[in-house]
Structure formats: structure tokens, C-alpha cells
Amino acid sequence: MLIGVISDTHMPARAQRLPEACTALLAGCDVIVHAGDHCDAASLVRLRAIGPPVVAVHGNVDGDDLRRALPETAEIDAGGVRIAVVHDAGRRDGRHARMRRRFPGARVVVFGHSHIPLVERGPGDLLLVNPGSPTDKRSQTCHTMALIRVDDGAVRAEVVTLDGPPEA
After folding, report:
1. What is the CATH number of domain 2-161?
2. 69, 89, 103, 150: which could form a disulfide with 111 (CB 3.0–4.6 Å)?
3. pLDDT (tens digit, 0 to 9) for every residue of the chain, 168 residues total?
């Protein structure tokens, strides 16, 4: 199973749509995960139109419409692997322990908020994944997203660097 992961798209403030490379990768996935800060409901509609099922949570800058439509956290079963999704996983110090307590059955926790891409395996084999942002790189050198692969119970994740800036 292939899961495409994005977060912090901040559309339309940072871009009108996702970069072409991001959309192409997402279209080839079995599931799309968005870890919050969509910014407007129309961007969520466009994300769902890509094709694969979308699992999404709301972020801290999402308006009331998205907060009503999307949960604060979500959990999915990906080929027998439990994946939790939350927008803000908090400070780096103690993050693995906090996420383990918050999502005791999860093998993977996807989060956003910082715009800093991260793939980090911690104690108890808990994998933390932050895709960065495909549209708002902030202090990062490039726009990013992540891919999570689940095969026969094995989980691998990678940050993918996207070509070029987001489309205007």
C-alpha cells in the first residue's frame, strides 16, 4: 500500500493549487493523508478530486467550516498497520513519548505544523512522519511531501523533494 502525505498547504494564500509533481505522486497512491492547515474548503475539494480516498484533519489556521468538517485527529488501518494523523505533535523534546501515549495502537504518527520534513523512528519502533509542505517551504530549501509504503506489515517512509515552486 502506498500512502501520499502532505500538510500545511495553506491554499490559496501560498498557492492556487498543488505543484504538478505533488499531484502526480498523490494520484498514484492508494490513500492521501493531509495533516492539516488546508486553509480553505475549496482546496480540500480539489484534493479529493485527485482520486484516491483522502484522510484529513484540521489544522490551527483552518476556518470554522473545515474545523466542523474535519476531525482533530484520525486513525487509519493501512494493511494492518495503524497510522495516526494529527496536525501539531508539539515540541521535539519528548515527542515520541507523547505520541505513543496519545496514539497507543499506532505504528506511525503523521503530523505537520512546523513545515519541517521529518522521518524518524523512535523507541518502540514508532515512526514519526512530517511531510513538510508542498506549497510553503518557509525556511526549508525546497517544497516537500512524504510517501509511506506498507508491505506485509513492514513500514517505510521517505520525504520527497518536489521540483520547482508551487504553481501560481
Report:
1. 3.60.21.10
2. 89
3. 999 999 999 988 888 889 999 999 999 999 999 999 988 888 899 999 999 999 999 999 988 989 999 999 999 999 999 999 999 988 889 999 999 999 999 999 999 999 999 999 988 889 999 999 999 888 888 999 999 999 998 999 999 999 654 444
Cβ-contact 47, 25 below 8 angstroms: no
The contacts of residue 115 (CB under 8 Å, 6+ apart) are 8, 132, 133, 136, 137, 138, 139, 140
DSSP, res 40? S
The domain locations on the chain are: 2-161
Element (H, E) at 66: helix 64-69
How far is Cα 76 from Cα 119, in angstroms, rounded to an integer?
19
Name beta bridge partners: 128: 109, 120
Asked if residue 21 lies in contact with residue 162, where contact means CB atoms within 8 angstroms, the answer is yes
pTM, two decimal places: 0.92
